[in-house]
Write a structure and sequence with these properties.
Helix content is about 45%, strand content about 10%. With about 375 residues, the protein is α+β, with helices and mostly antiparallel strands. Helix 2 packs across helix 4 and helix 4 packs parallel to helix 6.
Length: about 375
């Protein structure tokens, strides 16, 4: 029993080893001929005197040494150009260019006017006809000279179709096995992610962030490299998780402390959304204290101030002095009459505390404004 391998172009063994029977003595490195996939192949001996293997198929026997048996050379797959003629087109270009240049000189300097319009149209048609004639000649020659190239392309396409016909089923089979292997790689990566998550004590929220990348499913991906990459991510997630756990502990302690002052207790779930938003510890604590303060004020409203009705003192009318009547005098000169001086009416103030609905208070303000009474609001608020 011997092991043989296929040989490459340099005569070196390549690929996997195959088991064959040998009825003649051979040595390692000998070239032997054996049937492989229905064709005689030259193989190289890599092992001898191996233990007989237990297999469920018939082990083939080598036909002999390669030097002793004439083998049919396989048809070559290398292209051979049997005939190649480079396309060469030579026209009387220089002659045509000189003649055309001389002919076209008569068209130089032509100015289109109303009188020369008919003549210019005729000359333009002549030039267009010459241009079309040159272009058609180019197209016809190109088409004729392209026929060998088109035939060559069609031959190559036919050969490619033959290769693709044989290659298609093989590619399909390879894809099936490759896809199975990729699925196996993904399953293996998922199991590694679970192991790493458990190793670094990641909770469910952070464990799901150990994303399985497409590169983990490559056929050449190695499990140790995948594990190292997952560990690197897990270490970063662990730091973030510990920071969140510390924040949660602080929040719970703050809630417990503030709940001692109020009857309606706050819960951690009421503030969990702030953590998900990425708020800092200081900002979350401020929200907790603000909520506790509002609850406390609602449970302990301030005592309403007593309403004291202020009855303004009656305004006494100003008392004017009694001016005595003028005394009759026997004076020859006229006596000027005494005109009483009018005194300005004093201004008073009163302090009220008015309690009522919003519209009622607005009506009071309107009354004061309508009567041109000056007033100042020193305090206001909701009872």
């Amino acid at each position: 029993m011997i092991k043989v391998k296929v040989i490459d172009d340099n005569g070196q063994p390549k690929g996997r080893a195959y088991t064959y029977k040998s009825e003649i003595e051979v040595n390692i490195g000998d070239l032997v001929v054996a049937d492989m996939a229905g064709k005689d192949k030259i193989l190289i001996v890599t092992e001898t005197n191996i233990a007989e293997e237990k297999v469920d198929f018939e082990i083939k026997t080598i036909k002999g040494l390669a030097d002793d048996i004439e083998t049919e050379e396989p048809a070559t797959l290398e292209f051979k150009v049997e005939k190649e003629v480079l396309p060469v087109i030579k026209i009387n270009f220089d002659e045509m260019k000189i003649a055309l240049t001389n002919t076209l000189t008569e068209y130089n300097g032509i100015v289109v006017t109303e009188q020369s319009l008919s003549s210019c149209k005729s000359k333009q048609k002549d030039l267009a006809s010459l241009r079309v004639k040159i272009d058609n000649y180019r197209k016809d020659k190109k088409k004729d000279l392209s026929k060998p190239i088109t035939a060559f392309e069609n031959q190559c396409k036919e050969l490619i179709e033959l290769v693709e016909k044989a290659e298609g089923p093989i590619k399909t089979g390879i894809k099936v096995f490759d896809d199975q292997k990729r699925d196996s790689k993904r399953t293996q990566a998922e199991e590694l992610a679970k192991e790493v998550a458990a190793e670094y004590s990641l909770n469910e929220k952070y464990a799901v962030r150990l994303e399985i990348l497409d590169k983990y499913c490559n056929l050449t991906a190695k499990s140790n490299e995948v594990r190292e990459d997952l560990i690197s991510k897990a270490m970063t997630l662990k730091v973030e998780q510990d920071r969140e756990d510390e924040l949660i502990d602080i929040i719970k302690d703050t809630i417990e402390s503030e709940n001692e002052k109020i009857n309606r207790k706050m819960k951690f779930e009421d503030f969990k959304r702030y953590i998900d938003r990425g708020m800092t510890t200081k900002e979350v604590i401020a929200e907790i204290k603000l909520s506790a303060s509002r609850i406390y004020e609602a449970e302990n409203p301030p005592e309403p101030e007593p309403i004291i009705e202020v009855i303004p003192e009656p305004v006494q009318e100003p008392i004017f002095e009694q001016i005595p009547e003028p005394v009759q005098q026997t004076v020859s000169e006229p006596i000027n009459p005494i005109i009483p001086v009018e005194t300005e009416e004093p201004t008073y103030y009163a302090v009220y505390r008015v309690v009522g609905k919003l519209e009622q208070l607005r009506s009071v303000s309107k009354f004061l404004k309508d009567n041109e009474i000056e007033y100042t609001v020193t305090d206001q608020g909701e009872i």
